[in-house]
Specification:
The complex is a heterodimer of chains A (346) and B (632). Chain A contains eleven helices and twelve strands. Chain A has a domain of 202 residues: Rossmann fold. Chain A is 29% helix and 18% strand. Chain B has 632 residues and is an alpha/beta fold. Chain B has three domains: 212 residues, 3-Layer(aba) Sandwich (Pyruvate-ferredoxin Oxidoreductase, domain 3); 181 residues, 3-Layer(aba) Sandwich (Rossmann fold); 100 residues, 3-Layer(aba) Sandwich (Rossmann fold), CATH 3.40.50.920. Strand 2 of chain A pairs parallel with strand 17 of chain B, so a sheet runs across the interface.
Chain lengths: 346, 632
């Protein structure tokens, strides 16, 4: 979401820290996300009093308590709906929605897709740890099939959501992915989400070191990160690998991995275009489970998959009010009370 | 209207008046029911007749009664759509018990309504709707009820409506389907003749509605006149009736339906409070008309949001309230059930929010288009935890305006969600309303919290009403967090402290109870401060009880009527008031919900009178019960 203001009073990252003790488990990925948000937000030029964090229920949803801004810790899955009403009535506010894979994709899944299609100008930060943490370790709608958890001792039979594909399917106007363990990238993505005018969806891979430790380690740990991740930048070729020797080429609609050291030409590589909806759909499907897939699987993309400019809901709503005022004038309460037809008894 | 041609009817009118002057009967009130297939235009016919009656100064009350299906199979009982109108030169409180005149467009319409016609009443039938097919569909088999004695106790006026409509439009160039659609105008014209009404209003309506379709406009006008002339030239002796204007309080009136009144009440409250109005909702029968009405008034800073579901409806409203808007959600029973968790959030957040429940028959999907009062306990108690919410209820269609306004006032003054109960009966019913001037409406004061230099902001600090500050985003220095978790007194910080929890639970309850200091005490609507029998009503039973009690008092029965508009909290004097009567009768369209609360709180042996048929009480039913009790 994009917010511009005159010259607001400056504030520091430190001033975004509240007097509340942070109660996430030691080692939780949420700490890093909080830190990056507190680092980035003072740089955005938004008056602090215009910033609102809204969350639902879950570990991630404690977030607002730790941000010295306006905030609401609401009920499970509904932050999206609450933020919609707030944005509809207070379009000048900078609204940040913090949710998780359970909150935003399971109990609140319906509101998430509708928020995205309506395109309210706000930011959705979905902390995906592929597990239910606050209820102590049940599988989530993003847990992989076969996942053994407290509620699935024989393994989960649920097919998981692909959050990026889901959001593209809901016609989101900004879809990106980052991770807790890459502060620089996460900061950049938070900024990009804020810069986009419209509903910005940012999935953040977040490690739950208590109930699902290591879920994303192949993407975050040094030994495997370069081979298993693909950092997308618009206008740049899709390359990855220890020395960026691997690249993605499109064969028709099928992406294939090529090795530039083994005769593939850099000129044949897919150049990322974050405004190409069709290709974003293909990138969203780079969703192989690196553990289950064989050697020749696709890397997991990070960065902005897709963005487009589309009028935002609250402005269209206000335009209707303005149109009607222009046509009929400001509402005259006595005329409304009187209605169209009256009669007088004397 | 410019560019439209009005067919002159006034000459007919005058001649009719002249010819018929001697055979005219003066009545003080009449109940007409229009019934036909749901595609027959009975609602429109009824509304037209109603508006004309209103403009002629009659007092009136109406009740539409339509099937849940939009187009149920033609000719069947399930497809019968009705519109009942009670109008008169006397005060009218209900749409009436038994109709004096039934308009039956087909056999099914007759079958569905036969037992609701007064003995000796008139049945106007469209004989074309009684052919073999219609008789079979209505379940009459081969027997025509018009010929087997079924209608011997009534005066029957047979008309070939379909045939005469087609004849009137012969050569009009319209197709049979379009021609048949004008049938209802024939009946309407005839009734205008029968009740000596001016057709001016309906002619104006047709001219406006079909301004862009001149052939349809002309067809409707022609058939309307044909129906009127049919009355005039019919050779069978038929009485004409005249009903003078009602002697109701002098003033300027309009016609109002309950849902419309709710919408206007909300707009008025927002305007007086200087706030934008936000209505977050999901379509549901019979509440959707509130959304429809509000969405027509965007120039009053009204934002309507048709959410993806009921939960999003209320949650979006909670967000809007956090932002400082007058926020409202509306639904009916099943939707309210879905909103309950969010209602709990709103009361924990202590944000103003109005929740409207236009009750319908339950449980589950129940009877979507029928009326009931069975969500009272849901409203008062239906949430997890100790979750008190003020509950108020509207008595009549026009009362919906005042109670919607009052719900907004209480929500803002006490920083609380407020539940307003109406029901399908008054939501769709209409009555004349001596509307107020905006300047006569009580003020609603909004004081958004401001930062006080050097003072720590406490989001849950209380004022004398135990109400907390409304501190909206965008206010510098008031950054704070609120949520659904139990909070510490004054600071609003999360607190799991045992003693604090109990303290806060009691505080939230006391806050709601405190409202009793700011609402009117209960007093008799009719009757005396002390007496033998009190009939205590709430919600839409108002009209039926009032009519019944008036009739009972004419029969010298010692009976008083009082009506509850405030259910949580009750008026402060209710306990003392109830003790002034030997017996208390509580009629409710449920299995006895208010009575549970009354017995619980005041330990009195109140007497229940319950009806759960999806239909309002008739005044006669209540009168009978009063008469029985008066013999005790």
């Amino acid at each position: 979401m994009e917010t511009t203001t005159a010259s607001p009073d400056k504030f520091t990252a430190k001033e975004l820290v509240t007097d509340q003790e942070v109660r996430w488990c030691p080692g939780c990925g949420d700490y890093s996300i909080l830190k990056q948000a507190q680092t980035v937000i003072p740089e955005l030029g938004i008056p602090r009093e215009n910033i609102v964090f809204v969350s639902g229920i879950g570990c991630s949803s404690r977030f607002p308590y730790y941000m010295e801004t306006f905030g609401m810790h609401s009920i499970h899955g509904r932050a999206t709906a609450i933020a919609s009403g707030l944005k509809a009535t207070r379009p000048e506010l900078s609204i940040w929605l913090v949710t998780g894979d359970g909150d935003g994709l399971s109990i609140g899944g319906n509101h998430t897709i509708h928020l995205l299609r309506r395109n309210f100008n706000l930011n959705v930060l979905l902390f995906n740890n592929e597990i239910y943490g606050l209820t102590k370790g049940q599988y989530s709608p993003t847990s992989e099939e076969g996942k053994v958890t407290k509620s699935t001792p024989m393994g989960s039979v649920d097919h998981p959501f692909n959050p990026i594909a889901l959001c593209l399917g809901a016609d989101a106007t900004f879809v990106a992915r980052s991770m807790d363990r890459d502060p620089k990238h996460l900061q950049a993505m938070l900024k990009r989400a804020n810069d986009h005018k419209g509903a910005s969806f940012l999935e953040i891979y977040q490690n739950c070191n208590v109930f699902n430790d290591g879920a994303f380690e192949v993407f975050t740990e040094k030994a495997s990160k370069k081979k298993e991740t693909l950092f997308m930048e618009s206008g740049q070729p899709l390359v990855f690998g220890d020395n960026n020797e691997l690249g993605i080429k499109l064969d028709g609609f099928t992406p294939i991995v090529v090795n530039l050291n083994e005769g593939a030409s850099a000129n044949d590589l897919w150049i990322h275009d974050d405004r190409d909806r069709v290709k974003a759909g293909i990138l969203a499907r780079f969703f192989d489970n690196p553990r289950a897939a064989g050697e020749h699987h696709l890397p997991r993309p990070f960065g902005v998959f897709y963005q487009e400019d589309r009028p935002v809901y609250e402005e269209k709503m206000i335009a209707q009010l303005d149109n009607m005022k222009a046509k009929r004038g400001e509402g005259d309460l006595d005329a409304l009370l009187r209605g169209r037809e009256t009669w007088t008894i004397s | 209207m410019a560019g439209t041609r009005e067919i002159p009817i006034f000459a007919h009118h005058l001649r009719a008046l002249f010819i018929m002057a001697q055979t005219q009967e003066v009545l003080d009130n009449v109940i007409i029911k229009f019934a036909g297939d749901s595609g027959d235009g009975m609602q429109l016919t009824g509304t037209q007749f109603t508006n004309t009656a209103a403009l002629l100064g009659n007092d009136l009350s109406t009740f539409p009664d339509f099937p849940a299906e939009i187009r149920a199979p033609q000719g069947t009982l399930a497809g019968v759509s009705g519109f009942q109108l009670h109008f008169g030169s006397v005060e009218i409180f209900t749409p009436g018990d038994y109709c004096d005149v039934l308009v039956a467009m087909n056999a099914a319409a007759l079958k569905a309504n036969l037992r609701n016609i007064r003995k000796g009443g008139t049945i106007i039938v469209n004989v074309d709707g009684f052919d073999a097919k219609n008789l079979r569909l209505a379940g009459y088999g081969d027997v025509n009820p018009l010929e087997n004695g079924s209608v011997d106790n009534f005066r029957v006026v047979k008309m070939d409506v379909t045939k005469m409509t087609r004849a009137a439009l012969d050569g009009s160039g319209l197709g049979v389907k379009e021609i048949d659609r004008a049938k209802n105008m024939f009946v309407l014209g005839y009734l205008y003749w029968m009740y000596n009404r001016s057709m001016e209003h309906t002619i104006k309506f047709i001219n406006e509605k079909f301004e862009k379709k001149p052939d349809i406009r002309d067809a409707n006008l022609k058939v309307l006149n044909a129906g009127y002339n049919f009355g005039e030239t019919r050779e069978e002796a038929t009485s004409r009736f005249s009903i003078g204007p009602a002697k109701i309080a002098p003033g300027t009136y309009r016609n109002i339906m309950g849902n419309q009144a709710v919408a206007i009440g909300l707009i008025a409250a927002a305007k007086k409070a200087g706030l934008q109005l936000f209505y977050g909702t999901y379509p549901i029968t019979p509440a959707s008309d509130i959304l429809h009405e509000l969405s027509r008034h965007k120039n009053f800073n009204v934002k309507t949001f048709q959410a993806e579901d009921e939960i999003a409806g209320i949650c979006s409203a909670i967000g809007a309230s956090f932002g400082g808007a007058l926020a409202v959600t509306g639904s009916s029973g099943p939707g309210i059930a879905l909103k309950t968790e969010a209602m709990g959030l709103a009361l924990m957040l202590e944000l103003p929010l109005v929740i409207i429940n236009v009750q319908r028959g339950g449980p589950s999907t129940g009877l979507p288009t029928k009326t009931e009062q069975s969500d009272l306990l849901q409203a008062v108690y239906g949430r997890n935890g100790e979750a008190p919410i003020p509950v108020i209820a509207a008595a009549t269609p026009s009362d919906c305006f005042y109670m919607a306004y009052e719900a907004c006032r209480l929500a803002i003054d006490f920083m609380t969600p407020v539940m307003l109960l109406t029901d399908g009966y008054i939501a769709n019913g209409a009555e004349p309303w001596m509307f107020p001037k905006s300047s006569d409406l009580p003020d609603i004061k909004v004081n958004f919290a401001k930062n006080v230099e050097g003072e720590k902001f406490l989001p849950y600090k209380r004022n004398e009403k135990l109400s907390r500050p409304w501190a909206i985003p965008g206010t510098k220095g008031l950054e704070h967090r609120i949520g659904g978790i139990e909070k510490q007194h004054e600071t609003g910080n999360i607190s799991y402290d045992a003693a604090n929890h109990e303290f806060m639970v009691e505080l939230r309850e006391n806050k709601v109870e405190k409202i009793a200091d700011y609402i009117p005490e209960i007093k008799p609507e009719i009757g005396t401060e002390k007496g033998k029998l009190l009939v205590l009503g709430w919600g839409s039973t108002y009209g039926a009880i009032k009519s019944a009690v008036l009739k009972a008092r004419e029969k010298n029965i010692d009976v008083t009527f009082a009506h509850l508009r405030y259910i949580r909290p009750f008026p402060k004097n209710l306990g003392e008031f109830l003790k002034n009567y030997d017996h208390v009768l509580i009629p409710e369209m449920n299995r006895g919900q208010l009575i549970k609360m009354i017995r619980d709180k005041f330990l009195i042996p109140a007497i229940a009178f319950n009806k759960v048929q999806g239909l309002p009480f008739s005044a006669e039913e209540i009168l009978t019960r009063i008469e029985e009790l008066s013999k005790k």
